[in-house]
Amino acid sequence: MDSSSTGLFGIRQVAVTVSDVAAAKAFYHGILGLKFLFDAGPNLAFLECGPVRILLSTPQGAGTVDRNSTLYFQTSMLEAKYASVVAAGAKSGTCTAVDGKNA
Length: 103
What we know:
- The chain is of the alpha+beta class.
- It is 24% helix and 21% strand.
- It contains three helices and four strands.
- A four-stranded mixed sheet has the order 1-4-3-2, with helices on one face.
- Strand 2 and strand 3 (44-49) form a beta hairpin.
- The radius of gyration is 15 Å and the shape is globular.
């Protein structure tokens, strides 16, 4: 089934449940460099990566911290970006490209 038959043609927004929106915003905006759009109160922030919005929120009746979406960012410098994010304090883990190659 292709997108023309489903009417779906992309993802516009992904919600990420976090324990601390301010800390998550500092990571996604300050370290990864995503464009900050706006806050909608102390527990809700919106950022943008290309055409996709990232909604950061504390649990709001659904969702559990650290048990939610995995975000795959597109970059032409996988190893360098991974190293810079880890150097900035992110937890080190496996860095895997969509094509399956590990960095």
